[in-house]
Amino acid sequence: MPVIGNISCKEATYLVSKREEGKLTIRERLKLYFHFRICSFCKLFARQSKYMGQQTAKLEEQMDEVKMEHKDKEQIRKEINK
Amino acid sequence: MGNSTHKAVNQLDPDNWIDNYSDALYRFALLRVSDVELARDLVQDTFLSAWKAKDGFKGNASEKTWLFTICRNKIIDHYRKAANTLEQYGFDDYGAEHFMANGHWGNTGAPADWGISYNGQAVETKEFYKILNECKDRLKELQQAVFVMKYMDDMDSAEICKVLNITSSNYWVLMHRAKLQLRSCLEQNWFVQ
Predict the structure, then answer these.
(1) Nearest to B66 by CA among B42, B81, B82, B49
(2) What is the tens place of the pLDDT at every residue in B55-81?
(3) Taking a C-beta distance cutoff of 8 angstroms, is the pair A44, B113 a contact?
(4) Does the beta-carbon distance from A41 to B47 stay under 8 Å?
(5) According to the model, what pLDDT value does residue A13 have?
(6) Contact A16 B95 (CB under 8 A)
(7) pLDDT tens digits, residue range B130-159?
(8) Contacts of A64 in chain B (CB under 8 A)
(9) pTM for this entry
(10) For residues B104 and A8, what is the distance between their CA atoms, to the nearest angstrom?
């Protein structure tokens, strides 16, 4: 990868997750910075990526209607009492 | 009731485990493995293991924490088994459905504006979370495992690599593929219909 800034959208979006975790090298950070300046799609991808993570963190509390079926509970009760 | 003061901290109440925890453990497991039967088996195994280990319970953690830790370890074992059969995907081996041959977005794969402020507040309609969950369920097993550990369990990449015994480049590729697919699934099924 000879030229800083000249990366593909595929590489840029790969780097987005590393950036979220603060794991970019200085070189990668520069590459991504220059890519974002010319590519609004990848900038949008980064916002959406972060957003998906934030919403996934709420998934468990939001899915509170998920319950185990009664018959399965009874089955487990039997297994335990064997 | 005379010695009720001694019962104040962290004792087990196995007779009520199923009533008290089976729904929450089941939800915990199902959201992480996306397979109804497997989730049920994991909960059953959790209770059986806990039952066998109950005499050794020291009371350092609450009953609830203790049971969830057992369940969580079983889920991680399941992930680890999947990781052992990991197909080795390098950076060059995926993405054709999103990117053109030169690695830039194609005409159809590029992100569309979702018309939201991306501020991370909870979405008001629960339907959104159902769709998000369905899109997550469609991820291949290990992609889902890394995504779930990172965003539901708040682990960092180093911990996840250690738990799954995978390299960091395996991890970043799995995460990249997970996000590409999840993003496009959400966009098609929720944001831009």
Answers:
(1) B49
(2) 888 888 899 999 999 999 999 999 999
(3) yes
(4) no
(5) 97
(6) no
(7) 999 999 999 998 999 999 999 999 999 999
(8) 27
(9) 0.89
(10) 5
Chain B residues close to A35, C-beta within 8 Å: none
Contact A55, B118 (CB under 8 A): no
Calculate ∠ Cα B91-B97-B99, nearest 5°: 65
d(CA B176, CA B163): 19
> How far apart, in whole angstroms, are the C-alpha atoms of residue B178 and residue A45?
13
Separation between Cα atoms, residue A46 and residue B122, nearest integer Å: 19
CB pair distance less than 8 Å for A62 and B126? yes
Q: What is the per-residue pLDDT across B84-128, written as a single tens digit (0 to 9) for each?
A: 887 778 899 999 999 999 999 988 889 999 999 998 888 878 999
First vs last C-alpha separation in chain A: 63
Nearest to B44 among A14, A51, A76 (CB): A76
For residue B104, which residues of chain A lie inside 8 Å, CB to CB?
Answer: 8-10
With CA atoms as reference, report the closest residue to A39 among B100, B111, B98, B187. Answer: B111
Contact B148, B31 (CB under 8 A): yes
Q: Among partner residues A17, A59, A80, which is closest to B179 by beta-carbon distance?
A: A17
- Contacts for B95-104: CB closer than 8 Å, 24+ residues apart: B95/A10, B95/B177, B95/B180, B98/A10, B98/B180, B98/B184, B99/A8, B99/A9, B99/A10, B102/A8, B103/A8, B103/A9, B103/A10, B103/A11, B104/A8, B104/A9, B104/A10
C-beta of residue B59 within 8 angstroms of C-beta of residue B11: yes
